[in-house]
Design goal:
Elements: H1 2-22, H2 29-51, H3 56-78, H4 85-104
Length: 107
């Protein structure tokens, strides 16, 4: 159950960050509200996942790493941002770090 909550926390964070970009510096109220609600939801779900005994280092690495990778891809596909070989390398390093943290394990 903790991993499911974490997955929804990641999805909420990705939605919020996408909305943050679309809010254009908080000048579009609708996207600003989506961003705020998404971040509140994301942190709430992350906190509940941690309460179910996920290691904080692993949970945060998965949460931030998956969110970073997803946002980079969304930025390239939907927001007109560039995805260079160097950015792709960085995403792969993040994924590798998350895998190492999970293999180092805890529970």
């Amino acid at each position: 159950m903790a991993w499911i909550l974490l997955a929804f926390a990641i999805a909420s964070e990705v939605l919020a960050t996408s909305a943050l970009k679309l809010s254009d510096g908080f000048t579009h109220l609708g996207w600003t509200l989506v961003a705020a609600a998404g971040y509140i939801t994301s942190f709430t779900l992350l906190a509940r996942a941690l309460k179910l005994h996920l290691d904080v280092g692993t949970a945060y690495a998965v949460w931030s790493g998956a969110g970073t990778a997803a946002i980079a891809i969304i930025g390239a596909l939907l927001l007109g941002e560039t995805l260079t070989p160097l950015k792709i390398s960085g995403i792969l390093l993040i994924i590798g770090g998350v895998v190492v943290l999970n293999l180092a394990g805890g529970h």
